[in-house]
Amino acid sequence: MIKPDAVANGHIGAILNDIIAGGFKIVAMKYIQLTQESAGNFYAVHKERPFYGELVGFMTSGPIVAAILEKENAVEDFRKLIGATDPSKAEEGTIRNKYAKSIEANAIHGSDSDENAEIEGNFFFSQFERF
Ligand code: ATP
Ligand code: MG
């Protein structure tokens, strides 16, 4: 998911270029704005964290790009491509290093396991939309 900060700052095209150059195939993609309820559900694993309310506020602050990507070893390779959660710690050349401003407004989300990639893909896309 390309987050509201990166969309607002005009980085959709550059980020998609990096993703494609990284060897990922875009299988499905949509441009939408999340509701409080859907952002809350998406980040439900962080419900107890102190930043949850702000995170939901930020994620609903503007449109996002949701996509399903395909590649061998996709989860691990995508997390390498996006870099550390805190952009000040993200390696040079990573998407968060180049396009993110803060630990909250960090430009992009990547699934953290194959299992969660399946869940998050189904959160944004029905099978009908995918094929
Ligand atoms: P994501 O799940 O978005 O790909 P991540 O897996 O690198 O990011 P998580 O620990 O899952 O990091 O945190 C989810 C999101 O919550 C982060 O991307 C960031 O937007 C926000 N977040 C994480 N830690 C903090 C924090 N300490 N303060 C504010 N926001 C935070
Ligand atoms: Mg995460």
From TrEMBL:
ATP binds at residues 3, 51, 79, 85, 96, 106. Its EC number is 2.7.4.6. It is an enzyme of class 2 (transferase). Its cofactor is Mg(2+). Keywords: ATP-binding, Kinase, Magnesium, Metal-binding, Nucleotide metabolism, Nucleotide-binding, Phosphoprotein, Transferase. Residues 1-129 form the Nucleoside diphosphate kinase-like domain. Belongs to the NDK family. This is nucleoside-diphosphate kinase. It comes from Sphingobacterium allocomposti.
